[in-house]
Amino acid sequence: MTTALDDLTAYWMPFTANDRFKAAPRMFTSAKGMFYTTDEGRELLDGTAGLWCCNIGHGRRRVADAVHAQMMTLDYASSFQTGHPAAFRLANRLADMAPEGLDHVFFSGSGSEAVDTALKMAIAWHKKTGQGSRTRLIGRERGFHGVGFGGVSVGGIVNNRRNYGPLLPGTDHICHTHLVQNAFSRGQPEHGAELADDLERLVALHGAETIAAVIVEPVAGATGVLVPPKGYLERLRAICDAHGILLIFDEVVTGFGRLGTNFAAQWFGVTPDIMCVAKGITGGLFPMGATLVSDKVRQAFRGDAVHGIDLFHGYTYSGHPTGVAAAEAVLDIMDQEGLVARAAAMAPLWEDALHALRDCPNVVDIRNIGLTGAVELAPREGKPGERGFDAHLHAFANGALIRAVGDIMVMSPPLIISEEQVAQLMSTLRAAIEAVA
Ligand code: PMP
């Protein structure tokens, strides 16, 4: 066994080309405000809020102090049959922030757990309400819902699915919302509301009486910022209502101010029956997820006879005191600094700066909403993803962290980003795109 720092073999990194990374590691050693510092002492502008999560930026003493104080006061308490007041306080606060009617909060430890919780609740709800045949779960192509078996089964990314056997039985997918004719749309695209009718196809194919729920990200994030066409989510909601299907929004990425509203549901004016959140809930500073449900969903679980327990589900870290303390401090900061309104105010400038990259070589589409943006590059012939990854490396070497999803350059900066930093991010991306032309 070796403990040397120059031996990188033991750590099997997630979603990473391990050998390539370890041949040329890119390491961070500290972070403050909008910037990471690398092990070479270089500063990098954080264009991605870590992984869509550090919405309040980095190095906030107030959160660190709250977490420290919590650990010294009540470090852990199980949420099975016991509680602690702050978890109830946070649940109330989330219900207040959420779209009208999503009043009940189930805590978990990550986005993946929040999703699997939602899927299980949806199936169980139908059983409770006398419709036990409704077990089918519908996701969407190009959807990402974490890495649990439930989330992967409703997810629509082939590489996340192909090596894991048959996955959950009885899942299906509606088509994605990316239309070439919508290229270079600003915000919501005009065309494609009727793509929601693909759900009618699955209803006709399987029978509504077999379908429990449909889960979508209001804006697909991980697969390259796919903004729903105008009218699409409204139509999806209406089809769900017509057929007694529960609508689940996965707001793991879009929650907590990313679009300039608390949640995307409020931006689009469409309320789901169940909503999954994580990431920004603690500003990425502690692993936490939550599943919010409507009163209609919650009420059916009241008064279960089996040991009086209303849901046989939960995690050791549900409502973890330290996570709750981190979330409360993060939400305090967001309130006091008005970060949701700030994101909304910055969004038009962000949109202009992003779309100014249209004249760069190989750019085939640019998409945005709120403080998210994607610049899609044409792939190199026979080498999909290579151009994007090279652009990521170029940006990394030149002062900005920008994600590459295949050949799509994706950005989602902390909500504290300044006008100058938007300009810096875009000029670094421009130089990277030109360099990989
Ligand atoms: N849902 C969505 C929409 C996500 O983007 C992610 C993570 N990027 C997840 C779920 C999974 O969250 P986690 O990694 O916390 O399990």
Automatic annotation (TrEMBL):
It holds the Pfam family Aminotran_3. It comes from the Bacteria. Keywords: Aminotransferase, Pyridoxal phosphate, Transferase. PROSITE patterns: AA_TRANSFER_CLASS_3. InterPro entries: Aminotrans_3, Aminotrans_3_PPA_site, PyrdxlP-dep_Trfase, PyrdxlP-dep_Trfase_major, PyrdxlP-dep_Trfase_small. The keyword Cytoplasm does not apply. One of its GO terms (molecular function) is transaminase activity. Its cofactor is pyridoxal 5'-phosphate. Belongs to the class-III pyridoxal-phosphate-dependent aminotransferase family. This is Aminotransferase class III-fold pyridoxal phosphate-dependent enzyme.
